[in-house]
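FW: tagging you since you asked about this chain on Friday. Here's the raw sequence from the shared folder, copied in full. Didn't touch anything.
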Amino acid sequence: MDIKTVNINLNRNNSQYLKEYHPEKIGQEVEIQFIKNKSNNKLYGIMSCSYNSNFILDNDDFSFETFKCDSNFPVYIEFEKNTSEKYKLLVTKNHNSKSNYFKIGYKKIIFPNKYYSFKSYWEKVKNKKYEILWSEPIKFEN
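HL: got it, structure written out here
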């Protein structure tokens, strides 16, 4: 499985969200794509809306902004039907930062089957039983 940056922009919706809830922050939406390579039929876990628990950044000057969510649970990225999956993340930047580059890492959590429990998922996260799959460097557009 590979990860690549597909699209980077600051759209009107997330700009409005930041203005209303976090006026001190600047941010941009980053769309990433997981791409199947070879015959990979493993199940990978990701949270249904708190993506920030699955992703990390390599630069402390940046952070993920999360949106309100009323139901959050592990879901699976399955490559049996598709060759890729896309996710959108809102990345914000510290105003004092001089850095414009960061990488996004995905905590690659593999499940043995579709019936793996929520508790087991969090145990893997807590015990760091995953490898991290990194994107290429991403430029933050001010």
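FW: The domain at 16-139 is CATH 2.60.40 (Immunoglobulin-like).
HL: agreed, and The chain is about 15% helix and 40% strand.
FW: great, closing this out.
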